[in-house]
C-alpha cells in the first residue's frame, strides 16, 4: 500500500506480510488515517480536505493478488480511479471491490444479519474469491453484450435516433479532441495568467530589493561578509559564520537569476487567457456530460465508436454478438457449477465448525444451517443436472444462514 500527500501523511509505502499485522501508536499518530486511505482507494467518498496542506493531489495505491487499484484526489476535490492502470468509473470500482476488505467497527457484528452478505462469508471460507470475481466480471460483460444485442433489435426509427445521438456525441468529443492531463495543465496556466500582473509586480519588487536597489540585500550581505572576513585573523570561529553567509549569497544570487528568467518568460498575448478559458470550458463540458474525467470521456468515445460499427452493420454484428454471448455463457456456466459444488461441500463443514464453537460457548443443542438455493427457469442459461438455472453475479446460488440457539427449536 502506497500513500502520498493524504491527510497528515507525506509519503509512506507499506508491505503487509501474511498473518496478523498490528498497528500501534499514540492518539493522533495516524492509525485511523491508514484505514481511511484504504477505504477511499476502494471507492469511499473523497474530499479535497483529504489532500495534504500545500500539495496538489493525494495518491493512494493498493496492490492485491489479482489487481492493482489507484485513486487520485486533487486539491480541487476531483478524483480519478484506475484498476490495473486502466481508468475505471467510481461506480464500477465500488461494485467490483465491495467485498474485498472488511472494516470492523463497534457495531459491525450486526452485518451478519444481512442475508445478502452470507454468500460472501461462505465464499471466503471456501477460498475461491478469484473464481467468484471472475463470475462477477463475466456476468457484467454478459449484461453489456445482451444490451447491445437488444439495441440491434430495436425498430428502424429507434435505430436512426440512436445513430443520430451517437454521431452527435462523437462529433462533440472529436471537436474538442481532449488529451489526458491537459485539464490540469491548463487549469494551472489559467490560475497563473489570471494573476500575472500581481505575480510580475511581486517578482519585480523582490528582485529590486534583492539586487538592484541601493543597499540591496545582496550588497548588505556582501559588506557583512567582508567585515567578518577581516576579523577572522583574530577569531577563527568567525569562519563558520562567514561560510554560511557566503552560501546564502550564492543561493540569493541563484534566486535572483531565477526571478530574472521568469520575468523574461512571462510575456503572453492579450487573448491567450481567453483562449485557455475557452479550452477549459470545453473540457469541463465534456467531463460533465461523459463521466467526470478526460479518461472517462475517451472511454465513452471508444464505446460510441464500437456501437456505431455495430448499428451500421446489424446482421454481421448480431451474428458476432450471439457467438460471443454463447461463449461467455459457457465460461460462466462452467465456473458457476464448479463454485456451486464447492459451496455445497464446504457449507456442511462450516456448519459443523460453528456448532462446535457454540457448544464450547455452553450452547449445547444449538443448530446452524446454511441453505443454498437456485432459481430454476426455462429462460436460464446455466444447465445443471438437466435443469436450466438463472445466473447472478455470484453464479447460480443464493445463500442464507439460519440459527436455532435453543435445543428443539426450528431454525
TrEMBL record:
InterPro entries: DNA_recomb/repair_RecN, P-loop_NTPase, Rad50/SbcC_AAA. PANTHER family: DNA REPAIR PROTEIN RECN. It comes from marine metagenome. Belongs to the RecN family. This is DNA repair protein RecN. Pfam families: AAA_23. Keywords: ATP-binding, Coiled coil, DNA damage, DNA repair, Nucleotide-binding. One of its GO terms (biological process) is DNA recombination.
Amino acid at each position: 500500500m502506497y500513500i502520498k500527500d493524504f491527510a497528515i501523511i507525506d509519503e509512506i509505502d507499506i508491505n503487509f506480510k501474511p498473518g496478523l499485522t498490528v498497528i500501534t501508536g499514540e492518539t493522533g499518530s495516524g492509525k485511523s488515517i491508514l484505514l481511511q486511505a484504504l477505504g477511499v482507494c476502494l471507492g469511499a467518498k473523497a474530499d479535497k480536505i483529504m489532500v495534504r496542506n500545500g500539495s496538489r493531489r493525494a495518491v493512494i495505491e493498493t496492490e492485491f493478488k489479482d489487481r492493482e487499484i489507484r485513486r487520485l484526489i486533487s486539491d480541487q476535490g476531483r478524483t480519478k480511479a484506475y484498476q490495473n492502470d486502466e481508468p475505471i468509473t467510481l461506480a464500477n470500482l465500488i461494485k467490483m471491490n465491495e467485498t474485498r476488505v472488511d472494516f470492523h467497527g463497534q457495531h459491525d457484528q450486526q452485518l451478519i444479519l444481512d442475508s445478502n452478505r452470507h454468500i460472501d462469508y461462505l465464499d471466503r471460507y471456501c477460498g475461491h474469491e478469484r473464481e467468484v470475481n471472475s463470475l462477477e466480471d463475466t456476468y457484467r460483460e454478459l449484461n453489456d453484450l445482451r444490451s447491445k444485442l437488444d439495441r440491434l433489435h430495436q425498430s428502424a426509427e429507434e435505430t436512426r435516433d440512436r445513430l443520430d445521438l451517437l454521431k452527435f456525441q462523437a462529433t462533440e468529443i472529436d471537436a474538442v479532441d481532449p488529451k489526458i492531463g491537459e485539464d490540469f495543465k491548463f487549469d494551472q496556466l489559467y490560475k497563473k495568467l489570471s494573476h500575472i500582473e500581481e505575480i510580475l509586480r511581486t517578482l519585480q519588487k523582490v528582485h529590486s530589493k534583492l539586487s538592484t536597489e541601493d543597499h540591496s540585500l545582496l550588497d548588505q550581505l556582501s559588506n557583512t561578509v567582508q567585515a567578518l572576513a577581516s576579523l577572522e585573523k583574530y577569531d577563527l570561529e568567525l569562519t563558520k559564520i562567514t561560510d554560511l553567509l557566503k552560501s546564502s549569497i550564492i543561493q540569493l544570487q541563484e534566486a535572483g537569476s531565477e526571478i530574472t528568467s521568469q520575468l523574461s518568460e512571462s510575456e503572453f498575448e492579450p487573448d491567450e487567457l481567453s483562449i485557455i478559458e475557452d479550452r477549459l470550458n470545453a473540457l469541463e463540458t465534456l467531463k460533465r456530460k461523459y463521466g467526470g474525467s478526460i479518461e472517462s470521456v475517451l472511454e465513452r468515445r471508444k464505446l460510441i465508436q464500437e456501437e456505431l460499427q455495430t448499428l451500421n452493420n446489424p446482421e454481421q454484428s448480431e451474428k458476432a454478438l450471439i457467438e460471443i454471448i454463447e461463449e461467455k455463457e459457457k465460461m460462466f456456466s462452467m465456473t458457476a457449477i464448479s463454485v456451486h459444488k464447492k459451496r455445497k461441500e464446504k457449507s456442511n463443514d462450516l456448519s459443523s465448525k460453528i456448532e462446535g464453537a457454540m457448544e464450547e460457548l455452553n450452547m449445547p443443542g444449538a443448530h446452524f444451517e446454511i441453505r443454498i438455493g437456485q432459481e430454476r427457469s426455462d429462460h436460464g442459461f446455466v444447465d445443471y443436472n438437466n435443469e436450466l438455472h438463472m445466473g447472478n453475479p455470484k453464479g447460480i446460488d443464493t445463500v442464507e444462514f439460519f440459527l436455532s440457539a435453543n435445543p428443539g427449536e426450528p431454525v
